[in-house]
Prior knowledge:
The chain is of the alpha/beta class. Helices cover 41% and strands 13% of the residues.
Amino acid sequence: xxxxxxxxxxxxxxxxxxxxxxxxxxxxxxxxxxxxxxxxxxxxxxxxxxxxxxxxxxxxxxxxxxxxxxxxxxxxxxxxxxxxxxxxxxxxxxxxxxxxxxxxxxxxxxxxxxxxxxxxxxxxxxxxxxxxxxxxxxxxxxxxxxxxxxxxxxxxxxxxxxxxxxxxxxxxxxxxxxxxxxxxxxxxxxxxxxxxxxxxxxxxxxxxxxxxxxxxxxxxxxxxxxxxxxxxxxxxxxxxxxxxxxxxxxxxxxxxxxxxxxxxxxxxxxxxxxxxxxxxxxxxxxxxxxxxxxxxxxxxxxxxxxxxxxxxxxxxxxxxxxxxxxxxxxxxxxxx
Length: 336
């Protein structure tokens, strides 16, 4: 059970890795933490039902090295969210609890949570109050700029204002609206236009709030540009598909250029973790699938990915699969 946490006063949202269902599990987060000491990591969205009526330890466990770490919850029942917040804070020591008010999938809508909650700001405010009452850790909201035809700047201002009046100080805003029907979750990340200016406006009008911008950010220069308007940036797909992007974060955004591992070293640093996981019954491909992009843009990257994809899922696959894949890329040929 994790024991050390960052205090609320120390928690920084300057750079965050977005919660991504089926992607940001504990294995992926452990690998990401090797590349950045300072990035704030988020879990996948976990529903209140999974925690309260399933195996809470299975869904909430993590490695102590993952701190600082935030849990993202999905739900709309204040009492259930409050109980999950209590469990996450007291029993698992998460550094932050985040409420998902941005996911547009049909499954999420059928449970009356996610992006559809943007149309019910008073309920979101009630959920926030119930959650914050159960923890001294920050409770935060991740939302969109709007949903369906409710996508005006005035609508966003009213939503933020209502929830902020309940005491919420930190908002992570995906700078796109969500269509609740007609678009898949993937299309909702790509088709609705980005409105960074609306997120900037929220920060300008509410300087006391901690505003983090999310959506379409793939370069460090863009991160720096957004930080001239907002308190933090959240990066999703780029952090996962091109994980060595995270190796820039500490120096560029936190002034810490110490101990940045090379790509090869990042892979090797996973060896003890993988050996322990295999002994616990974890399958190799459940870990290595998160490492496939570490050599993106480097000669031999395709061979590395292919070798792992063709071998890591086989019965009895062990650490030698990863070692053999790594041998396909010459360390001397890489200028880090």
